Write the structure tokens for this entry.
Amino acid sequence: MAKERLYLFDTTLRDGAQMHGVDFTLADKLKVARLLDELGVDYVEAGYPGANPTDTSLFSEDRGTKAKFTAFGMAKRPGRSASNDPGLAQVLAAKADAICLVAKSSAFQVKVALETTPEENLASIRESVAAAKATGREVLIDCEHFFDGYKEDPKFALACAKAAYDSGARWVVLCDTNGGTLPHEVEAIVGEVVKQIPGDHVGIHAHNDTEQAVANSLAAVRAGARQIQGTLNGVGERCGNANLCSIIPTLLLKKDFASRFDINVKPEALKTIAQVSRTLDEMLNRAPDRHAPYVGDAAFTTKTGIHASAILKNPATYEHIAPESVGNRRKVLVSDQAGRSNVLAELDRIGVTIEKNDPRIARLLEEVKDREARGYSYESADASFALLARRVLGKVPEYFSVEQFDVNVEQRYNAVGERVTVAMAVVKVKVDGETLISAAEGNGPVNALDVAFRKDLGKYQPFIAGLKLTDYRVRILDGGTGAVTRVLIESEDEKGDRWTTVGVSPNIIDASFQALTDSITWKLLNSNVPA
Ligand SMILES: [Zn+2]
């Protein structure tokens, strides 16, 4: 049986940009559009021309994507003609392959929010579609509040959808704008809609307010819809939009969908999705969700010894898909619950080959347990674990030694009479018999120490030039200011490789310093730098 085509519509750059803390520049938008295009989505909804200068200039030239570059706007306002609506005119003038216009489809919303009549609203949909079609572009109508509207007044909601389709909209997109609809309701309502409008003209736009945006999207497809709208990492207003980073792997890897549908994302491109997800988080300057399905760092991570030994025998025992198929990786945690099999699996992953009954494995396990009792945690600090393992096996060169460091925090009045706190650090490090001294200021003591430390490492400097800290987490163990502090530092290099290191001490500066030292050492070791 021939497979049916399912279309993916990404709105990271439009609806996703509604999220608190998201502020894309023009360059950011072009970069995300390129990522999405390489991934293979069918539509990239990139913004709302006329709404802000960034989006207006984004649509001022042809962006040449394979995906349909889509401009978003509002259907014409009631009480004026389409040709006399300046907002609509800006959208219609955009350099775009497709135009997506949002229109109301709930009788309640029409009356309360739009303050117009049902007839006026239907006329607005028809005229807006006609005006957009007249520009020769593909037209989509987002039926706002469709599901809530359908529950109040199914006839009116359907009439709005039908008006869009009958006037020539390529897609009629059913929006769960408030995000409160449940999967069984979506399935039932879409089932009714596709009796009136062919399913291959119906789309679903779900929000995640009951954490079911992905489930609602799949329910709509099961009922007959053939376009899914969503965003990378589910970014979006409030609780976000349907997460394409979960939907795409599901469509390609789960038999019920994979056997029935074709999408434009190919298996090769699927292998980049974990990286795409991380790139977006990085642009938004937020730490990736470790527990995100498919793409999260912990998605294929196993902690307990029994699971780990089973996974070593056959990964299918505790994995629902192969991690590599989505560009992720299997990880077996080393923790005080761990047995030999965890350690063996982790050694294997970091490329250390060792005989199964080598006595050094027992020594390493002892060392891990001892350190964990003191507050270290190697569960996420993969690089610190790898260094520890290689040290026990005698395989870490001493690239540098820090002879002394000094961190100074001072609060004083600045030149304009404001009270400011400044931090300064001096680091004295020995490389190749030569003593190098660097000083730096920072917005805090750890920042100053980090900048000074990485300022001059002599002949190793070129190898750490692209290193940057992407996350810094502090945890106080056993409470109180006299307690032990655990610091986890996540670093990244110019190739996008990430690693995490750990430090523990009663002193937060000292704990941070250990984690920084491990991070730099790991980078040098990983770059195969000879000592
Ligand atoms: Zn939305």
Q: What stands out?
A: The pocket of zinc ion is lined by residues 15, 205, 207 (CB under 6 Å).
